[in-house]
Description:
It comes from Stylophora pistillata. By secondary structure, the chain is an alpha+beta fold. The protein has a single domain (2-155), classed as Glutaredoxin, CATH 3.40.30. Helix content is 29%, strand content 10%. It is built from four helices and four strands, in the order H-E-H-E-H-E-E-H. It has a two-stranded parallel ribbon. A two-stranded antiparallel sheet has the order 3-4. Strand 1 (25-27), helix 2 (42-51) and strand 2 (64-66) form a beta-alpha-beta unit. The N and C termini lie far apart (40 Å).
Amino acid sequence: MQYKQLNELLQTYRSGENSKCGFRVLAFPCNQFGLQEPGENAYEILNGLKYVRPGHGFELDRNLKMMQKIEVNGKKESKIFTFLKSRCPAPDNFIDDADKISWSPVRNDDITWNFEKILIDHNGQPYRRYTPTVEPKEITQDIEKLIGQWEDETAE
């Protein structure tokens, strides 16, 4: 499950108390993909994770912030996703079958499904997008590269 791997990444790249460049995850729930996020708000979604799936008292790392539920594509697309998509090309040329798309207009840079990931550097600039099938543990090399760039810049 991707939430568990996100927790593991946060534990691996946890910043020290005096670090200004800390690794964080922002999760933006969205119900535009197969109506798979029925929770109305972060509280409901977090309780679903804790008690249902994966359950067993699961909790997100304190550095994984569950944001409010938004739309990431179409006319009502959140401005943060308009910005992110404008700065970072889509990781794939395929969105979905036309009969499965619930938003309009459809654009070639649209988010394709739940758990598409966008890595942002320490200057707030999108670095790379990853398809939903890329597991969080698979982006460690890029995370380490960005942390190294930050360390080089701050050492000067």
